[in-house]
């Protein structure tokens, strides 16, 4: 079944369920002419369920079964399908025509909430005047379809909705002044006495929203100041140490250079003294 057609059927069935009290499984009165128009390979129960958008309980009257019996063995397969349906007692001792039998069973108000599956156009036209009667039939292409709600059905539905609307308006009338409300006077008296007895509470000024208030900064603690002062002093001492270290190295280097220079000078002087002594000891040649 197409999605669009399924939505149409669902809306139509919703009218019957809300306005006329139809419930699943839907009781479907099947006429003998619908069974004769049925393709033997088709599942009539499945097609009826698709049209009603829910579980169905197919039913057939004794008069419709008798009409199939009169056709003989040529329609034995259709008769066997009809025998599987629930038999609806029509209480007709003498079998009537199927259209007359179905008209009598449904009645003028369809109080038993039947869904009619009939192929006779005259029967469908006559029974469409009954409000709250869904009608199923085969269209010219051989597809089992649900007829749109009749004018009588829509008119009855609109009348029920209007009646409910007026009832609601009557109930709401006078609610503002409390005249039409049950127990309004006693409730008002009780509430006034309770209000007089209860002590009145003074309204206090509310504080600001804690989420919108800026948090206060914590005051500096004394020991944090001392720690900071100690850190500054340590940094200054390290800096002075580094400066003193550099001057000491320079001084040591200068002293070592002076000692080397003095040592070289003494070595030179001693070398010159030895040379002069050797020269004095050597005899002059005659």
Automatic annotation (TrEMBL):
Q: For the region Disordered, what residue ranges are annotated?
A: 181-286
Q: What is the lineage of its organism?
A: Eukaryota, Fungi, Dikarya, Basidiomycota, Agaricomycotina
Pfam families this protein is in? Fcf1, UTP23_sensor
Location in the cell: Nucleus, Nucleolus
Q: What is this protein called?
A: U three protein 23
Species: Papiliotrema laurentii (Cryptococcus laurentii)
Q: In its keyword annotation, does this UniProt entry include rRNA processing?
A: yes
The job of this chain, per UniProt, is described as: Involved in rRNA-processing and ribosome biogenesis.
- Give the UTP23 sensor motif region domain ranges: 200-217
Ordered alphabetically, the record's keywords are: Nucleus, Ribosome biogenesis, rRNA processing
- GO biological process, any: rRNA processing
Q: Which domain of life is it from?
A: Eukaryota
Tell me yes or no: is rRNA processing among this UniProt entry's keywords: yes
Major place of residence:
nucleus
């Amino acid at each position: 079944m197409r999605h669009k057609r399924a939505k149409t059927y669902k809306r139509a069935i919703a009218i019957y369920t809300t306005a006329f009290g139809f419930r699943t499984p839907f009781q479907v009165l099947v006429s003998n002419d619908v069974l004769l128009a049925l393709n033997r390979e088709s599942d009539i129960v499945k097609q009826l369920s698709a049209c009603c958008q829910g579980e169905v309980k197919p039913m057939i009257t004794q008069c419709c079964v008798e009409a199939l019996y009169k056709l003989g063995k040529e329609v034995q397969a259709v008769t066997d399908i009809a025998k599987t349906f629930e038999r609806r007692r029509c209480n007709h001792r003498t079998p009537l025509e199927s259209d007359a039998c179905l008209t009598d069973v449904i009645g003028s108000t369809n109080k038993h909430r039947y869904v009619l599956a009939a192929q006779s156009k005259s029967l469908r036209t006559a029974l469409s005047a009954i409000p709250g009667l869904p009608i199923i039939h085969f269209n010219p292409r051989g597809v089992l379809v649900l007829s749109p709600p009749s004018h009588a059905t829509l008119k009855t539905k609109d009348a029920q909705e209007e009646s409910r609307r007026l009832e609601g308006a009557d109930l709401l009338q006078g609610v503002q002044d409390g005249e039409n409300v049950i127990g309004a006077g006693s409730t008002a008296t009780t509430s006034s006495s309770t209000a007089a007895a209860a002590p009145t509470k003074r309204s206090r000024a509310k504080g600001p929203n804690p989420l919108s208030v800026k948090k206060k900064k914590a005051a500096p603690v004394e020991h944090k100041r001392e720690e900071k002062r100690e850190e500054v002093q340590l940094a200054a001492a390290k800096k002075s140490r580094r400066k003193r270290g550099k001057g000491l190295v320079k001084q040591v280097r200068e002293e070592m250079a002076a000692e080397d220079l003095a040592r070289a000078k003494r070595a030179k002087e001693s070398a010159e003294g030895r040379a002069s002594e050797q020269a004095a000891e050597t005899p002059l040649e005659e």
